[in-house]
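Revision sheet: structure tokens.
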Amino acid sequence: MAKGRVVPVPPETVMSIIGPGMRVKGDCETSDTIRIEGVVEGSVTAKKAVVIGQEGRVTGDITTADAKIAGSVKGTLNVRSRLELSETCVIDGEIRAARVQLDDGGKVSGALHVGPQGAAPKDGAGPTGQGTKTNAPPPQPAATGRRLGRK
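Predicted:
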């Protein structure tokens, strides 16, 4: 390598890693993928993916597009696309995902919301996904007989 020359690393090859024996206290956020082999005490947000190895542990909420979990999570999982749970995973908390694959032997304790609406809670949704009560009256149909939201 020539002195003073910097070789750029393609962004698609960048992955944040929390290695074995490492403990992070606080929130982790990345625009790419994060791999956790150690311990995170705080929320984890990754634009692309979260991968938790067999010895990895997260105590906090996880928000991402895709996730593959072999370790343990205590918190809410919000996965916009695909969630893969291996036979060694231990999940204690709510799961919201568009698609879920749970291998035989994996342990899940908590509410599970799967499907297009399961991936991201709607505004005003309570912990059960049923919505919260408000004092506002329900919407009334338009006088022309058209359905709401259409012109």
